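Researcher: I'm preparing a figure for a lab meeting and need a structural model of a single chain. I don't have an experimental structure, so a prediction will have to do for now. The sequence is pasted below. Please return the structure as tokens so I can convert it later.
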Amino acid sequence: MSDRDLPTKSSTPSQARPSSAPLESAKTAIADYIAHVRLFSRNARLYLLGSFLMGINFHVFQLLLNLYLKQLGFVEGEIGLVVSSRAVGMTLIAIPAAVLMSRVKLKPLLLASCLLFAIFSYFIASLQMLTLLIGFSILAGMSFSFYRVAAAPFYMRNTSRKERTHVFSFSFGMMLAAGMVGSIGSGKMVMLIGGWTGDIIIGYQVTLYIGILIGLLALIPFFLIRAARPSQEETRISISAEQLKRRGGFYFKIAVCNFIIGLGAGLIIPFLNLYFRDRFNLSPDTIGFYYFVVQFSMLLGSLSGPILVRKFGLVRTVVITQIASMPFMLILSYTYFLPLAFVAFVFRGGLMNLGVPLITNFGMELSEKREQGLVNALLMVAWTSSWMLSAAIGGRLIETYGYTVTMNITIVLYIIATATYYGFFRNAETRGDTSAGWIVTRDNAP
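Model: Understood. Here is the structure written out token by token.
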């Protein structure tokens, strides 16, 4: 044992101070975070509350709709068409919605989006004809798209530079919290109502209706928002031939990576609830609990994102976490041991989704200010359009070849997307000093 290992009676307060430094640092960080949250404007707080309520509705449908349609007798290929139809609607309207929202008040669009999404969701939960389900899913996707693309410009208009980062982080956390509430509550409610009525289909329908009603409550905070028209100095989205000629290469590269990732994700992610139902014969409440845990792992991942970015940079953090998630996807594809599948499901979700806000953040950093809205819309279109295609194909693949083959195709697409992303943007960041971390250098970007 060395002298430094021996306790001494002559320790001074200054010598003892380092042992409490981590605790003091944590307290300071928490106090700083709370101070910034208190800076949130009334409009920002109302929008966050509305987002939480609409998020619960969205996640209730995300968890239960596939299981409900399967219970009604639809096969995976038909379910894939319904799932992909919502992405069709979001893809068709995303860029027009972004352009419109840069020119008009957001409040009426938010109210209309919330109301229409609830109405179309009601018809999806009530009808059993495939063509009608597809049609109303397209309309639901279009209405939800307005709410989704409204967030960034709304926060930009209703925050100052000082608390803006915290508002965006808080918004992402609120959606994850909504997912946790929707996942854990809806699965149990299906079993409870199904047990009372003796009909599990009624359990699904009533739970979906309850999700719709919770989503409609978002009308209250959205109505209380005091929104102004876009300011004169606010940059409006515009697309010109000259702009496409000068920046088209960047638009293509930032979008194609998201497209390939979405292509892989759409093949299997919408069907993971069916995976647990079919392979392990799990009930809706157990599957809901699994989704609750994976949403919690995503929340932890989002909180650790800034720490990893400071150490590795935006690009390398995305690449590292996506690569780290792939062994867990491989385990999911082959295992028939439920505890192992559950662990793989949680870690895959946390690691793969950690990079989602980072990719958007990186895209904004590389964008000129006047094109940020366009780039944000392009990222969304790239994702939803690929999801639209692959979700329809994924259902057929699962129906024909099963989950293992489909998951392995997803892994290959993830590897291609990750390698492409790193190849395109590995030189777009440079390592600064310790305080600056990594710095995005647009001059080195494609």
